[in-house]
Amino acid sequence: MRILVRKLFVLHAILFGSLVPSSLYPILPDQLPEAFDIQLESPSFSNGVLTTDQGGTLKGKNLFVQAKNIRYTRTKEVNKIEAQGDLFMQIKDRPYKGEKVEINLDTNRATIWNGCTEADEWYIGGRVIEIDPEGKALFHDAYVTTSENEQNDWSIEASRVEVLPGDKLSTENVRFYFVRMPLLWLPKYTMNLAEEKSAPFSYRFRWGGSEGARIGVTYGFSSFNNWKTKLISDYNFKYGLGGGLIANWKNPAKYSSYQSLWYGAQARDKTWKSGRYRFQGIYLKSWVKQDVHLRAMYDKLSDREMKTDFADHTINDAVVGKTEAKLWKTTPNWIGSVDATVRVNNFQDVKQELPLLVFNTRPQVLGRSGIVLESKVSAGYLDYVYANQTPNVTNYASSRSELNQNIYKTLLVSPFAITPRAGYHLIQYSSSPQHSQRFQALATAGVDVKTRFIASNPFCCQIVEPYLSYDYITQPQVSSNDHYVFDLEDGWAKLNTLRFGLKQHLMLTPNRNGFSRQLLFDLYARAFYSQHVYSMAIPKTYLNATLLATPWQTYTLSTAWDQDNKVLDHINLMGRFTVSDKLAFTLEWRKRSAFCWRKIDNDNFIVDMVRPQHVLRNSEMSDKRQFARATFFWQIIDNLDFEGGIRHGWGRTNSPNYYEWDLTLGTLVRGALVVKFTYEKRYHDTRFYFSFGLGQKRPSKQSTFKKIGFGSYDL
Predict the structure, then answer these.
(1) What is the H or E stretch that residue 608 is in?
(2) Of the candidates 556, 456, 557, 460, which has an alpha carbon nearest to the alpha carbon of residue 517?
(3) Which of 367, 463, 361, 449 lies closest to 410, judged by CA?
(4) Alpha-carbon torsion 110, 707, 120, 159, what sign?
(5) Tens digits of per-residue pLDDT, 360-396?
């Protein structure tokens, strides 16, 4: 008989106390050990046996027993406790409920009949529970579940289950049930109850898209000794069978962790003649006392499509397709690192670092001058390799060494703060397109000037900050066509630009709920001198603004006017709305002109100066388009939530208009089965995704009930 009850362990003693009269008194006959604190109602004592059927408690080291019927026997032959009826106990800091318990005080072994205990989110019970002196519990005819209902919605069942100290569970011949329907059988299963929050199996189904329909199962078969391991299997109806292993290892005591994926699959013709594979992993290690850290990751794929054909498995924090290692050390005065990046997939374009050393010093004040010096040194061998399938390109490689130093000093000339700055870059390349060494040299200079005005009254506070920032880069000694360009740090050209603008922060007096409406904006423009790209010195004017309108409404705006071409350069307008803790949505509109360039760093204007507008206009850097999007989340009821988004794009030069939308529905069935359904309508295909797993907890609401033992108690 299983013991099931909705009840919190910590409240059980309080609830039971209401059932026992207040006339309890301690009984300590000479024959009883002084280590025990025994309080019984209407007890009787004869021939070394202390009994009651009116309730009481017995406390000792690592032991607490509370029951209606208690029998404590201490003779030359016997030294034990027997208890039953409204039984609750705690052994080695673990709580138990049951019908009956017998504790041998000579061997410190306990036997519980029809008992149950909990470990974190889990409930473990059995017909008989044997507990040894070390706290290890052996459950016979056992079940394991996270279901809080009186009857198990799902369970793991076995003839024997061992639970070791530290909540480590091990069992054999395991059967999985859902609503008393058998799902499958496994020969062995281990897990750490403190770390695992769900049943070991999850299922998924995906249909649509270029990768076709596929089904999959994930089985977490071990969680032990800092390891978590999962077996994964997939069947892609278009490309065949795939499967593998996910292993996670974490040792907090040594500040180290390792995540890995080993995966194999059939070829696209559904044969094993040329099997496909993916090996991915990331290793993190820290030597805290030395402030030394290591991050290493790898991702080897048999082909470019492998990551999409079987794309349901990824490694957290690992970058898809990247293989690199970085070792760095931090001190109060400097940070140094050694980076190594290699290409292991011949279908990728990769800048290999073989290796690259980088050394940064802390900004230092030069004597009493107040001048601050920043220094950076890097050296390494770089090898840019193109994908094997890319036509009409040539790989290039060169050693590269760079010294970069900057100085600045802030001068307070009331009411202004003036910060002049200057610096230089020296870069040495061992090779170039002309197969000769190149030495790049350039200088930078600039000045930042800003001031601040503050006005306040009983209704609001206003902060106004005018500013300007001037930047100058000298003509590089070597043109970008005469040396290799590995990334943005190699892209240099003469630049003469001034940014000037006005920042404002307006804050109204907080209302009675403590909320204060706020308006923040930055209105500025850029002037370019000594250039032949724009027809005027100030081609664009920019505005960035944020409005905190109410506690549940926030609006942001980012836009610019292109005076040179007489068009709106770009606009990003977004509203975020949190109606309640169960309903939220966003609305967004974006517009780009044909003269709004795609750039990683929008404040880097080197490419604007070295390429004429008509060249950029006819390249992929031209980003003409319009885009609108709405997203929402709605928790309809405690165990049902609904989220999705709608996207519409139009106005692209060489691409068709499109509508896309997706909806995701998540629910909890019978308190045990977590179901998630996603439907996606894309402009080129339609797909849906379905997954479910047993015993997972939904974060929408904390449960009011726990189940342990038998009986029902209202909280």
Answers:
(1) helix 606-610
(2) 460
(3) 449
(4) positive
(5) 999 999 988 889 999 999 999 999 999 887 888 889 9
DSSP 567-585: EEEEEEEEEEEEEETTEEE
* pLDDT band for position 691 (cuts 50, 70, 90): confident
Name the residue among 698, 686, 682 with its Cα closest to residue 638.
698
* Cα dihedral 364→367→371→372 (10° resolution): 0
- Alpha-carbon span 158 to 288, nearest angstrom: 44
- 348 vs 701: which has the higher pLDDT: 348
- Could you tell me the maximum CA-CA distance found in the chain, to the nearest angstrom? 111
- In contact, 540 and 564? CB cutoff 8 Å: yes
Residue 482 phi, psi dihedral angles, 5° rounding: -110, 5
Q: For residue 413, is pLDDT > 60?
A: yes
Q: What is the pLDDT of residue 234?
A: 85
HSE value, Cβ hemisphere, 13 Å, CA-based, for 76? 0
- For residue 319, the one-letter residue type is V
Q: How far apart are CA 576 and CA 555, in angstroms?
A: 6
Contact 611, 597 (CB under 8 A): no
User: What confidence category does residue 196 fall into, taking pLDDT thresholds of 50, 70 and 90?
Assistant: low
Rounded Cα gap, residues 374 and 14, in angstroms: 65
Under the banding of pLDDT at 50, 70 and 90, the label for residue 619 is confident
Phi, psi of 617 (to 5 degrees): -60, -35
| pLDDT digits 0-9 by tens, 14-35 | 333 333 333 343 444 444 455 6
Per-residue model confidence as pLDDT tens digits over 261-278: 999 888 888 888 788 898
Burial class (CB in 10 A: 0-12, 13-18, 19+), 156: buried
- Pair 299, 313: CB distance under 8 Å: no
706, 118 contact by CB (below 8 A): yes
Judged by DSSP in three states, 10 sits in helix
Q: Which structure tokens are listed for 681?
A: 């309508």
Helices (H) and strands (E) in the chain, counts: 4, 44
pLDDT digits (tens, 9 = 90+) for 493-527: 999 999 999 999 998 888 777 778 889 999 999 99
Of 147-151, 282-286, 632-636, which has the strongest mean pLDDT?
282-286
Give the whole-angstrom CA distance, residue 402 versus residue 487. Answer: 14
| Angle at alpha carbon of residue 417, lines to 416 and 420, rounded to 5° | 125
Q: DSSP for 21-81?
A: -TT-EE---TTS-TT-EEEESS-EEETTEEEESS-EEEEETTEEEEESEEEEEESSS-EEE
Distance CA 33, CA 454 (A): 77
Backbone angles phi and psi of 319, in degrees to 5: -90, 130
Task: Give the pLDDT mean for 478-485.
Answer: 88
How far is it, in rounded angstroms, from Cα 475 to Cα 710? 84
**Predicted structure pTM score:** 0.70
Q: Is residue 677 pLDDT above 90, yes or no?
A: no
343 SS3 class: coil
How far is 242 from 267, CA to CA, in rounded Å?
10
Question: What is the four-CA torsion angle of 107, 111, 116, 121, rounded to 10 degrees?
Answer: 20
Paired strand residues for 94: 91
DSSP assignment of 398-442: EEEEEEEEEEE--EEETTEEEEEEEEEEEEEES--TTSS-EEEEE
